[in-house]
Amino acid sequence: MASLATLPRAARSIPVNDTHPITDDEAWAAFERRDRTWDGRIIGGVKTTGIYCRPSCPARRPKRENVEFFPNGAAAAKAGYRPCLRCLPDEVNREEVALEKAFRLLAEAEEAPSLEDVAAAVGYSPHHFHRLFKRATGVTPAAYARNLRAKRARAALAGEGRITDAIYDAGYSGPGRFYADAEKRLGMTPSAWRDGGRGAVIRWATARTDLGTMLVAATEKGICRLSFDEDETVLQRRFPKAEIAHGGPGMAELVERTVAAVNAPEKPHDLPLDVHGTAFQEAVWRELTRIPPGETRTYAQIAAAVGRPAAVRAAGTANGDNNVAVLIPCHRVIRTDGTLGGYAYGLERKAALLERERSGA
Questions:
Q1: What predicted TM-score, i.e. pTM, was given to this entire model?
Q2: Has domain 201-263 been given CATH number 3.30.160.70?
Q3: In sequence order, what are the residues at sequence separation of 6 or more whose Cβ sits closer than 8 angstroms to the Cβ of residue 340?
């Protein structure tokens, strides 16, 4: 790929995929903060030394005008640069190797191994590995293992076999442990999950907000869906055998508090939520809640923040899989080029939310 240095600064970008290029400004910012989550995603070539480096290289930073960016070491070498002897940009990072091995161990284990066992297997102390894993994924190794196990359970329960067999096949030591997890993660009994929500109660109501008609649905644990221009049929499609009840105990107060949160998205809320997903989805959703009102992040920045800088498209998908609009602020994520991107409930609503937050903040 040709150097970016000959382009006007605002026009420079490194294509990551068709929709989310990395701008020159973003690349430089990653180098300035020595962001190791960008290692393997961009390479910086220093004109005055003829060397190319990873973003996390510990060497002293050159002046910005002396740095140009490339998508990989091969492109930098083609432009006449040689690899840095300090950060070894062409070698696979030891941490990347350790994480890949840990992911395999956790995915293949019938029962979740201990932190000590995984750390020893990948060559790190438990404390160091715990920090490394959480920085890369946004969750602890134990939480990651629980997510894997719950995901296997959901897949197994969707089949035709016996519930008890599904529990053991998913890696649980027994029904007691599974039911304890199911209460926290599945929001309903295992048979209800497999059987279209049979026996579960999901209460719903609609209300007018400044953004239009809102649907809010909740289990006993909290809000499981917040959307616009929808009715209870969306819940009936998701859980055709659940008891979908209009209103009910506590719903009036919950709806009132939810309307207040939607009408003032710049203010913090303490509404209870009942959401779950894969480890990656939950890491993305958690990162969304950390975006301050009045600010935005790009899909690429979200992917980097959860330790998966190459997973830009997956971050966009996880963003779109959010079932609780506004309260988990997926509207604060935009494209790298500054355009709004997509929004399930219309770009006008997204723009209105962002404008309200900027004004309120």
A1: 0.52
A2: yes
A3: 334, 347, 350, 351, 354
